Amino acid sequence: MYVGCISGALQKDEYLRIIEQAGFVNKTDQKEKEIDVPDEVLLKVMDSKELNAFRKSGTGIFSSTAYAEKPDKKSCCCCNC
Predict the structure, then answer these.
(1) If exposure means fewest CB atoms within 10 Å of the residue's CB, which of 12, 37, 68, 78 is most exposed?
(2) Using one digit for the tens of pLDDT, what is the confidence trace for 18-68?
(3) CA–CA separation, 59 and 70 (whole Å)
(4) Nearest to 39 by CA among 30, 31, 29, 47
(5) Cut 0.85: pTM above it
(6) What is the DSSP secondary structure assignment for residue 11, as one 8-state letter?
């Protein structure tokens, strides 16, 4: 399940930039939830020293929901959509 959820994940800033480049406006973050990946899963891809460093780093894996609107082409005057 973790692979399906996490593989191909993007950095949040990159994801929001792609939304903007696609012509969406009025972007807002709706919610964000940290994904708790158990140590036994992480130890399959890193050693214990790397795991300790990861846990102390304050970084993590998050699920993020964003909202944006795509303007109607007839009324759009602010971008190249």
Answers:
(1) 78
(2) 999 999 999 988 999 988 889 998 999 999 999 999 999 988 888 888 999
(3) 32
(4) 47
(5) no
(6) -
Secondary structure (3-state) at 17: helix
Quickly list DSSP for 53-76: HHHHH----EEEEEEEEPPPTTT-
Q: Which two tokens stand for residue 76?
A: 């759009």
Strands 25-34 and 62-69, by their bridges, are antiparallel
DSSP label at 42? H
Tokens 């990159």 found at: 14
Which residue's structure tokens are 């949040």?
Answer: 12
